[in-house]
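Supplementary Methods, section 5.1.

A reviewer requested that the exact input to the structure prediction be made available. We therefore reproduce it here, unchanged from the version used in the analyses.
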Amino acid sequence: MKTKKLIVKSSTENLSKIRDFISENASKAGFSKDDIDNMILAVDEACTNVIKHAYKYSPDGDIIIEIKQDKSAFTITIEDNGISFDPDIVPSPDLQKYYREHRVGGLGMYLMKTLMDEVKYNSVPGRFNRVSLTKKIKAT
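The structure derived from this sequence is encoded cell-by-cell as follows.
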C-alpha cells in the first residue's frame, strides 16, 4: 500500500496546495479528469469545513491529509484537532428548496457523499476529527 502525507495550516490560502497534492496523486493512480475533479471538490469541501467550523477561521490549526492507495481503492483522509462535529445531525438537503431560497454553503456532506464512493467520519472530542473519502479503483 502506498501512503503520502501533506500537513498544512488551516488557511484558505493552502487549499491550492491541497488541490495540487490530490490532483497529482490521483493522476498517478490513473483516475480520469472527471474523477480527479470530483475528488478535489470533495476534499475542498472537507477542508473548508475544517477551516470554517473546526478551527473557526484560525490559521494556526493543522490539517493533515493522507492518501492511501492499494489495488482497489484510493482513500484520502483529512484530520484536524479542532472542534468536533457530528455528521449524523446534518439532514439530507432538499435541493429544490435550497435552490429556490438561493442558499449558499451547507452542502458539504451531501457533496462528499455524492462525489465519492465512501465517506467515513470519526471524531474523538478534544483529540481529533477524521474524515475518510474513498474512490474505488476500477480494474482495467
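The beta strands are 2-9, 62-69, 73-80, 118-124, 128-136. These observations are discussed further in the main text.
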